[in-house]
């Protein structure tokens, strides 16, 4: 992938090769500016969500509940939503989407938002060498998007943004929006991030600020 990014912080509860910790003390004004920008992004996302869909409505359902298994038959993730509207282009709009990612049959991560959008994502885009170029589901979480560890997960990581995208099959999350991460004394803000939950890595792109208070 030829996508510039800065490796700014690897959360202590996540393990990867090398540990880079960059902490800039943010003043209240900088944090407030980031939060206002996030609120504006949320409002804009809500207003334009339906305009992104193409074609007439094909189906509408309430109390959506979907369970997805991997090729080996292991439980991969569940998707729930208060309602789903499916369009002719095979995209779907969701209200109150809730995804739970599983690891070894146990809930691992919970992801929620006010709204969601399911669309097809070319799986070979990130790795052109892959022979299988079949599309994968990509879920956009819009408005108060949140990632938290499930009860079975010992992690204390919490991630908040106005919007981010998830590819559930590979557990990758990306966004170019402001994000806040809280975990074991760390309070970090940035603009743009990428997380790979299977590799336990988290990268920030720019405007990185944060504070750290050691556990007592």
Automatic annotation (TrEMBL):
Gene Ontology MF annotations = glycolipid transfer activity; lipopolysaccharide transmembrane transporter activity
Alphabetic keyword roster: Cell inner membrane, Cell membrane, Membrane, Transmembrane, Transmembrane helix
Mind telling me which Gene3D superfamilies this protein's record contains?
A: Lipopolysaccharide (LPS) transport protein A like domain
Q: Superkingdom, according to UniProt? A: Bacteria
Leader sequence segment:
none
Which Pfam families is this protein grouped with? LptC
Coiled-coil positions are none
The cellular component terms of Gene Ontology attached to this UniProt record, alphabetical and capped at eight, are:
outer membrane-bounded periplasmic space; plasma membrane
Which NCBIfam families does the UniProt entry name for this protein? LptC_YrbK (TIGR04409)
Protein name as catalogued: LPS export ABC transporter periplasmic protein LptC
Organism from which the protein derives: OM182 bacterium BACL3 MAG-120619-bin3
